[in-house]
Amino acid sequence: MRNIIFTIVIGIVVVLGGCSSGKQLTQKNESANSHFQAGNYNEALAIYSEIIQQYESNNNASKCTVYTNAGESALKTGNTKLAIDYLSKAKNTPYANQTTYYLLGEGYKQIDNLSLEINTLDDYIKLYPDGKELSAVKKRLFSTYVESDNFEKAIYLWPDIDNKQDISLLEGYFIANKGLDNIDSCNNIAKKLLSLDNENIVALEWFGKQYYHKAENRYQKEIAAYDKKKTKKQYQILLKALEVVTVDFKKSLTYFKKIYALEPTPKNANYLSHIYGRLSDKKKAAYYKKLAK
């Protein structure tokens, strides 16, 4: 009889203890959520961490509901590694949502882990095709493709990108097309960039170098042909070719004068020195040659 009574008492104590523990957990959750909603992320994170520790110490992490909020709180307080830890664990629970993946992508961005960021953003798009952050995720995924030289994927994603007037996105689209040697597309994108910003370095350099190399290659070709066959006829051919070459060098000069005004580097000075040399302006060629050193 005493054993039966003892067993009953122990059972009651366990039940009451469980109820008490559950009540405390609920109170902690409410307190953490209150701090979270108020923007008190340090306070929220401290309480969320206690809740998480309790779930994990009981080997019950899959039922923890606060990983995503804890991860966001950690991000907001600058604790990126902890945020990634919590958000990664959230993915292994039934409570993961689009915010989980969006914030995890942001965490990987902050630690510059491009491959994991790409995987996470790609998962977001697949899992949440109508997600509230879908537009931002696609833009960032496009940028990560460009950064990682996945140019074909970047170009494939481009039609889904909103706000194609965004200069940084257009520059990324230009880089992807340049990486795949899509010359006509690069020309069109560069024109678009200059229509939005007439001092856009990416576009100015594209056209400046394009005309420069076209002129220089033609110049070298015609000079070599004349050196090989120095006849009056060949000389006349050379003179006509040099007229065309001069026009292209002048076009290149127009761009590089703008480029140098924006970025007065030795490299750009060297281009100007060479162009002025080809245009027989020895004084300016010498001036920029000094600046190129």
**Overall pLDDT:** 92
Q: Tell me the β content.
A: under 5%
Q: What is the percent of helical residues? A: over 70%
Largest sheet: none
Uncertain runs are: 5-20
> Could you say which structural class the secondary elements and strand pairing correspond to?
mainly alpha
Discrete helix count: 14
Q: What integer value in Å does the Rg equal?
A: 32 Å
Spell the H/E element sequence: HHHHHHHHHHHHHH
User: What's the number of extended β-strand segments?
Assistant: 0
Global outline: elongated
Distance from N terminus to C terminus (CA atoms, Å) equals 102 Å
Description:
By secondary structure, the chain is mostly helical. Helix content is 79%, strand content 0%. It contains 14 helices and no strands. The protein has helices at residues 2-38, 41-57, 67-76, 80-90, 98-110, 114-127, 134-147, 151-157, 167-179, 183-196, 201-228, 232-262, 266-278, 282-291. Residues 5-20 have low confidence and may be disordered.
Topology readout:
Layout: H1 2-38, H2 41-57, H3 67-76, H4 80-90, H5 98-110, H6 114-127, H7 134-147, H8 151-157, H9 167-179, H10 183-196, H11 201-228, H12 232-262, H13 266-278, H14 282-291
Helix pairs in contact: 1-2, 2-3, 3-4, 3-5, 4-5, 5-6, 6-7, 7-8, 7-9, 8-9, 9-10, 10-11, 11-12, 12-13, 13-14
Using brief descriptors, characterize the structure shown.
mainly alpha, elongated, 293 residues
In brief:
This protein is mainly α.
